[in-house]
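(Fold this chain)
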Amino acid sequence: MTDLQEIIDRLITFRNDRDWEQFHNPKDLALAINIEAGELLELYLWKSADAADQEKVKEELADVFSFAFLLAHQYGFDVKQIIFDKIAKNAEKYPVEKAKGSAKKYDEL
């Protein structure tokens, strides 16, 4: 079993033990990701990045990952594969010779 599958299995067990699967439809999982991402952003509001509480950052980031993994599981997505596919797609949109050191969007390179 991969580390990633172990994480997903523990999330599923935690969720199912509490009978929360009924609440974890794709729409609500997507909303939860957005809400948790907002809570992550809030940790940086009105302060420098260095001033954010790292323990709280870890907690909110874990929430974002958890709901994202559950959403991927809901659709039967292989998390590793969809990330590798996206990296490959971005490599085409952002070739090193054009994108290196630039923050421009692909259609502005």
Observations:
- Residues 44 and 52 are 6 Å apart (CA to CA).
- Residues 54-75 form the longest helix (22 residues).
- Helices lie at 3-17, 26-42, 54-75, 79-93, 96-99.
